[in-house]
Specification:
- It is built from 21 helices and eight strands.
- It is an alpha/beta fold.
- It has a four-stranded mixed β-sheet, covered by helices on one side.
- Helices cover 58% and strands 7% of the residues.
- Helix 1 crosses helix 13, helix 4 packs across helix 10 and helix 12 crosses helix 15.
- This is SulP family inorganic anion transporter.
- Keywords: Membrane, Transmembrane, Transmembrane helix.
- InterPro entries: SLC26A/SulP_dom, SLC26A/SulP_fam, STAS_dom.
- It is a multi-pass membrane protein.
Length: 534
């Protein structure tokens, strides 16, 4: 019997741990923080996607509750993603109606479930560590740069935007920061400043630290905003959270939309669905890998189960009128930094989004964006802390260069393109390392005759092909060459071909080749045989 992917992998059905007081006292305060971070992001991403604001909140609710329940990750939080805004905006326009787009979201969810079933999530195991670390640091830097304008009261760019380019011709992150300096609202600056001080110093006061600093920040923001009303420091409506108002159950249920199932044969619907499924799955796997990196307990999340959970979330979201979702790094990292221990925090954040929409929209709409920006500024600082750069530098250039390249690429493009560039650089260094490490090289001399022994590594892959070919080609004429594979469990067929061809042609250089335990063929054992069995 194979070991379950649960337990430390984060996906077992042991429900008791979710109700332990030691976990709940961490998870419940963390859920408040994630709720406060997610609320403006859900609204901002819906606005940028050209979708109803309710769709953004609905996606956050489904991401928290549905994905939270089915996910094997204990700390990842799902919701509408900034990386999909352009795809969503273009798809709604191209498909002609929001209802037809919802059908594409449902199909994308079904495709993600299929990807999970066929174990496509295994690809996450091949993301180089420095690229993931660089992606996290880049998200931190982006948070700082994107939230600074909101902190000073300049709210032109939507909440949750992670791209370098911004709305308007020639606008980008840097121009947004420069514009913010010319349009400072000092009321917003004071609220952001007080919020940052509370975020930094409140947790250090042990007697009151049990009250989450972000909750205090929000209460302080509401209080200061009310105090500034009617003065020169007053905040404008656009500088506040703007949650849709629901007055009764009829209005609430009227906000839901149904997919246009009549468009099932539309080719463009399927193209959109495949695009969303692939992009959302990649962003989810990247986020999952990143969250596991910063998990204090260092749990490993089951990637295939996560794809199934995300697929279920998108299936429900499309059915009810929501946006496509992914696991989101910003929310997940805020969850980790707030001290969450289990996925109860993600589920409760979804419930709080639902309850706030139903019962306290007026109160929520009194929260200044500047105090929420302060929470995200602190999250960004923790992700891009100076100590991380020092740590990666001490690991060596083969780790530091892909790390820095990923940061620069993500900051100046977007998440997927930036990570793709970082992956290329990371793969270069992996190939460079493999070039040097396929065998142990030994030379012994007997009279004028040299005996050169190449002891092959335990596993000789296709990546070692170039190194072995270069070495064999450069061996001196008239040598005795021993190629020893007695320690090798696997040798790639291309490498075997090089070895046998070399032996066949070596006599032309006066070289005698002896092969030790080199088989004609090496078979890789089935994956199920490599899994530990009880």
């Amino acid at each position: 019997m194979q070991i379950n992917q649960g337990g430390i992998a984060g996906g077992d059905l042991n429900l008791k741990k979710y109700f332990l007081s030691k976990n709940l006292k961490k998870d419940l305060p963390a859920s408040v923080v994630v709720f406060l971070v997610a609320l403006p992001l859900c609204l901002g991403i819906a606005l940028a996607s050209g979708a109803p604001l309710f769709a953004g909140i609905l996606t956050g609710i489904i991401g928290g509750i549905v994905v939270g329940i089915f996910s094997g990750s204990q700390l990842s939080v799902a919701g509408p993603a900034a990386g999909l805004t352009v795809i969503v905006l273009n798809a709604i326009t191209k498909l002609g109606s929001y209802e037809t787009f919802l059908l594409a979201v449902m199909i994308a969810g079904a495709l993600q479930i299929l990807l999970g079933i066929i174990k496509a999530g295994t690809i996450a195991n091949y993301f180089p560590s420095p690229v993931i670390e660089g992606m996290l640091a880049a998200i931190g830097i982006i948070l700082i740069m994107k939230q600074f304008p909101h902190a000073v009261g300049y709210d032109k760019d939507f909440e949750g935007d992670e791209g370098f380019s911004e709305a308007g011709e020639g606008n980008n992150t840097f121009s947004g920061i420069m514009s913010a300096f010319g349009k400072i609202n000092y009321g917003a600056v004071i609220i952001a400043g007080v919020s940052l001080l509370l975020m930094i110093y409140w947790p250090k006061i042990k007697k009151v630290a049990m009250v989450p600093a972000p909750l205090l920040v929000v209460l302080a923001g509401i209080g200061l905003s009310a105090l500034f009303a009617g003065t020169g420091l007053a905040l404008q409506e656009k500088q506040m959270v703007n949650l849709p108002m629901v007055n009764n159950s009829g209005e609430f249920f009227a906000l839901f939309k149904s997919p246009n199932f009549g468009a099932i044969t539309n080719k463009e619907v399927w193209i959109t669905a495949f695009t969303i499924a692939v992009v959302a799955s990649l962003e989810t796997l990247l986020s999952l890998e990143a969250v596991d990196k910063i998990d204090p307990i260092k749990r490993i999340s089951p990637t295939n189960r996560e794809l199934v959970a995300q697929g279920a979330g998108n299936l429900v979201s499309g059915l009810l009128g929501g946006l496509p979702m992914t696991a989101v790094i910003v929310r997940s990292s805020a969850n980790v930094n707030a001290g969450a221990r289990t996925k109860v925090s993600a589920v409760f954040h979804g419930l709080m989004l639902l309850l706030s929409l139903l019962f306290i929209p007026k109160l929520i709409n009194q929260i200044p964006l500047s105090c929420l920006a302060a929470i995200l500024l602190m999250t960004g600082y923790k992700l891009a802390r100076i100590s991380l750069f020092k740590h990666m530098w001490h690991k060596g250039l083969d780790q530091f260069i892909p790390f820095v390249v990923t940061i620069v690429a993500v900051v100046f493009t977007d998440l997927l393109i930036g990570v793709g560039i970082g992956m290329l650089v990371g793969i270069f260094y992996i190939l460079r390392t493999n070039l040097r490490n396929p065998y142990f090289y030994q030379i012994t001399t007997k009279g004028d005759k040299k005996t050169i022994t190449l002891r092959l590594a335990e596993e000789v892959s296709f990546l070692n092909k170039a190194a072995i070919q270069v070495t064999l080609t450069s061996l001196p004429k008239g040598s005795d060459v021993i190629i020893d594979a007695s320690n090798s469990r696997f040798i790639d067929p291309d490498v075997l071909e090089i070895i046998h061809n070399y032996k066949h042609n070596a006599y032309t250089k006066g070289i005698i080749v002896q092969l030790v335990d080199v088989k004609e063929r090496y078979d890789v054992p089935p994956l199920k045989e490599l899994v530990y069995k009880l």
